[in-house]
Amino acid sequence: MPRSFARKHAFPAGFVWGVATSSFQIEGAAAADGKGPSIWDDFCRRPGTIADGSSGDVACDHYHRLEQDLDLLASLGVDAYRFSVSWPRVQPLGQGAWNPQGVGFYDRLVDGLLARGIQPYLTLNHWDLPSALQARGGWAERDTVQRFVDYACGIDHRLGDRLATITTHNEPWVIATMGHETGVFAPGLRDRATAMQVSHHLLLSHGLALRALRAQGSKARLGIVLNLAPAHPATDSEADRTKARLEDGLLVRWYADALFKGAYPIDVLAHLGADAPHMRPGDMQAITEPMDFLGINYYTRLMASASDPFDAGANGYDVTDMGWEIYPQGLTELLLRMHRDYAVPPMYVKENGAAFKDVLVDGRVHDEQRRNYIASHIAAVADALRQGVPMAGYMVWSLLDNFEWASGYAKRFGIVHVDYATQARTLKDSALWYRDFLRLQRARRASVSAALAAE
Ligand code: FCB
Prior knowledge:
TIM Barrel, eight-stranded parallel barrel, 16 helices
């Protein structure tokens, strides 16, 4: 199957294949070696927040199994590994003193990747804000913007010479909306005005961090990762189409218009009324600081229904264990749209993958559904490429089964199975397929460059 699949879908020579993780979801070692607490450590301790009552205290124990996990990455043959830095591990209070042991871990991670020929793709903020900053108001407080800029410069100063890319934030919509409006994620606040202020501060801190990183001569390519989806009306009714337009405004245009056009969409501002964020002169200009890449996380589309606040319009479709509809053509649609509507830099799919109820039998996990999910979404990227969209890479979420936020450990997204009792890692069939597919991609690349050299 990988052979005919690889033959069918062509990717440019420099296209980057990878897998992704995040610090809080895999590292564990929550209080080891001087690490400070994060808002996710605190959130997990609050009763009722995590479906299985679990926490990130141990997770995949990646912090103590670094070398083994690096070898696992190498065995897959990926070009790149996307990981995030736990801010409170390297700067326990979110400002002031740096923790040399925490920095040492990422030093070893980056060097270990390079030694194995894997490009480090670093994310600065995959949600685990230092608790000490939350105590001062967190992302709702403008001062956190400057703290983040200092943190970004500190990381670049320590690791930047060895990084391929630096991503400022992972999924600002999720931090703002799920963390501060619906409250299902840390820090668990429920206020729309606060959420929109947070979204503005995240975008502002992104732009100002890019500016500061460039001023200090960062060698990494710089960008952000957005969670985007096409918003389709559940029916053709006027009400559903209006709802779809608003959801598109809140999820896609709010972020993309700000980043690429320097203004929030007027219809969304009107909808928000008094909940719109406070801005200062110069903010929007800072937010449009040019990026070297745009990262997109894609899992499913949105189905907007005016009669159903939960948009449960996906009934009757194939869904993953998260209940998310499997809709690969939405990825092609989204990439074409971003290319058409915005002056986007080269785009990466920085996360794409699926949770299914896996069973480990005799050392194998036959996760055919996940393999099909990944293959169909890779085909969707190839389709966008064929239609002229500049795509730079694709990364599977996730390398390992891990702590899936409010869902705890019950939802497994890994292409590698983790037995949490023993911490044993087992490559699922999807990982074996991805490994073989990447091997064929490399072989094709090598034969193309040999042919060019012979010309
Ligand atoms: C994304 C997150 C990632 C993971 C996947 C399933 O929203 O960025 O950490 O939880 O969803």
